């Protein structure tokens, strides 16, 4: 049987499948995006905790270095003066770029003075203790600077290679980079880490990495005086450059930084941003996590950037056309099946009278009407029962359906034993031929209710559809009635 209104169902199916696909894709993308936002929030919290841990570690190491310095300097345990070796116009300990010992720190000083020897021995002790107690500690760019910049000690000796007193602005003027230290006991007993971390430097150009950086700074206090003071031996600094911050970011996200994340460190005083991931000019609606009173982490996860870079989101978009096609086919099939259930006669498989309304409303094309009426159908029902009558109707309908074009013509059960056939692109002469062929097929159909052969036959009339369907059916009905009269049959 032909599909009744497939073009309409195609449009409806396309609209419905597009709407459902968009809804499902949006739900999937929303779920992925919300999950990513949750991961970002958790990761940034971890990163913030890492920053606080770095500062706390720096504070503890500075305090320990000050205590150790005081111990060894008081008891003259700072080693011999011959541990210094010339380095250009300065002096160094393990500072020759060609013979660096990686398991020791490096020191460069303007003069081979006693305090430089003491800080080297004290720092080496702290360095060894930290390594022994924390073997997995990622500790790259940490160093100590004298309060007046006259000597530098690096925990990682390779960091000393590019250093020169003649080009170092930090050596020339440490106070330009470092804040004035507060009193020792005020510093030690201060619980507010964010206030303590005001000692961090401003953003500057790091000569080691060649990138923008800032340093977490703690003070190594001079504890030799009897009264509390803010006098310091030097500054313990930990450089946080872009590579170091990128490493920390990966650690915070367990090696899987969400796609589309934009993150940077912003100076709360100047507004300058050290960008770590993606383009920080897109940090319009950014979230912020304060690291100190000087810096905060600013981050955002724009939905458009996440969708364009996340593999799962791209996979959802790639599957959307497939889903659209599958839904289109499924919805179209079910709509057509619903049409067939509504317009199809369950007994004969022909269309029901309901189809007339659709044909007239939609002006569906056809040219000729054939009206069939079963001959002596009441006698079959009376003699052999209604089941036999139903089988007779099924046989007649099968003959009609088999002798017309399935996708062009219409076979309609318009009454109990009356059928209408609408022919497309068929003139009257050919319509008569179709009617005769159908009648001949019905006449030779083997029909034997209860084992008794019963001949089947139909009367028919043909009319062109010129004005209206109702008029054509009435004209065909009149012709059929004349045929019945000639055969001596009642309607």
UniProtKB/TrEMBL annotation:
<dbReference type="GO" id="GO:0052621">
    <property type="term" value="F:diguanylate cyclase activity"/>
</dbReference>
<dbReference type="InterPro" id="IPR000160">
    <property type="entry name" value="GGDEF_dom"/>
</dbReference>
<dbReference type="InterPro" id="IPR050469">
    <property type="entry name" value="Diguanylate_Cyclase"/>
</dbReference>
<keyword id="KW-0812">Transmembrane</keyword>
<keyword id="KW-0547">Nucleotide-binding</keyword>
<feature type="transmembrane region" description="Helical">
    <location>
        <begin position="313"/>
        <end position="335"/>
    </location>
</feature>
<keyword id="KW-0342">GTP-binding</keyword>
<dbReference type="Pfam" id="PF00990">
    <property type="entry name" value="GGDEF"/>
</dbReference>
<keyword id="KW-0472">Membrane</keyword>
<dbReference type="GO" id="GO:0005525">
    <property type="term" value="F:GTP binding"/>
</dbReference>
<feature type="domain" description="GGDEF">
    <location>
        <begin position="365"/>
        <end position="491"/>
    </location>
</feature>
<dbReference type="InterPro" id="IPR043128">
    <property type="entry name" value="Rev_trsase/Diguanyl_cyclase"/>
</dbReference>
<keyword id="KW-1133">Transmembrane helix</keyword>
<comment type="pathway">
    <text>Purine metabolism; 3',5'-cyclic di-GMP biosynthesis.</text>
</comment>
<dbReference type="InterPro" id="IPR029787">
    <property type="entry name" value="Nucleotide_cyclase"/>
</dbReference>
<protein>
    <recommendedName>
        <fullName>diguanylate cyclase</fullName>
        <ecNumber>2.7.7.65</ecNumber>
    </recommendedName>
</protein>
């Amino acid at each position: 049987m032909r599909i009744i209104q497939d073009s309409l169902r195609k449009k409806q199916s396309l609209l419905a499948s597009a709407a459902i696909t968009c809804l499902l894709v949006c739900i999937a993308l929303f779920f992925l995006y919300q999950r990513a936002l949750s991961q970002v929030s958790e990761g940034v919290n971890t990163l913030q905790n890492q920053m606080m841990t770095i500062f706390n570690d720096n504070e503890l190491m500075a305090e320990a270095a000050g205590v150790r310095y005081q111990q060894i300097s008081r008891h003259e345990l700072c080693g011999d003066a011959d541990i210094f070796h010339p380095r250009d116009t300065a002096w160094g300990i393990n500072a020759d770029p060609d013979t660096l010992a990686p398991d020791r720190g490096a020191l460069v000083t303007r003069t081979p003075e006693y305090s430089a020897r003491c800080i080297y021995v004290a720092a080496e002790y702290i360095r060894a203790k930290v390594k022994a107690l924390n073997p997995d500690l990622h500790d790259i760019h940490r160093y100590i600077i004298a309060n007046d910049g006259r000597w530098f000690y690096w925990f990682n000796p390779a960091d000393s290679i590019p250093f020169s007193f003649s080009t170092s602005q930090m050596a020339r003027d440490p106070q330009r980079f470092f804040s004035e230290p507060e009193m020792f006991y005020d510093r030690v007993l201060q619980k507010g880490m964010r206030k303590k971390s005001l000692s961090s430097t401003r953003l500057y150009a790091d000569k080691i990495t060649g990138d923008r950086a800032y340093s977490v700074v703690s003070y190594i206090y001079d504890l030799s005086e009897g009264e509390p003071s803010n006098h310091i031996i030097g500054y313990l600094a930990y450089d946080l450059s872009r590579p170091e911050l990128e490493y920390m970011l990966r650690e915070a996200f367990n090696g899987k930084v969400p796609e589309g994340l934009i993150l940077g460190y912003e100076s709360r005083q100047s507004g300058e941003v050290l960008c770590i991931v993606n383009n920080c000019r897109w940090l319009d609606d950014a979230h912020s996590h304060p690291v100190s009173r000087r810096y905060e982490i600013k981050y955002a996860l724009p939905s458009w950037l996440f969708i364009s870079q996340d593999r799962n989101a791209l996979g959802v978009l790639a599957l959307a056309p497939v889903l659209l096609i599958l839904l289109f086919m499924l919805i179209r099939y079910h709509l057509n099946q619903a049409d067939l259930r509504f317009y199809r006669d369950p007994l004969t498989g022909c269309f029901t009278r309901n189809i007339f309304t659709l044909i007239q409303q939609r002006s569906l094309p056809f040219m000729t009407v054939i009206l069939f009426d079963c001959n002596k159908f009441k006698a079959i029902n009376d003699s052999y029962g209604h089941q036999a009558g139903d089988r007779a109707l099924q046989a007649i309908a099968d003959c009609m359906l088999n002798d017309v074009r399935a996708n062009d013509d219409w076979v309609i059960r318009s009454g109990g034993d009356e059928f209408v056939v609408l022919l497309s692109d068929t003139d009257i002469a050919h319509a008569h031929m179709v009617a005769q062929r159908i009648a001949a097929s019905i006449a030779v159909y083997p029909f034997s209710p209860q084992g008794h052969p019963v001949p089947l036959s139909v009367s028919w009339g043909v009319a062109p559809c010129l004005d209206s369907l109702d008029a054509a059916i009435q004209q065909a009905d009149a012709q059929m009635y004349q045929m019945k009269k000639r055969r001596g049959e009642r309607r």
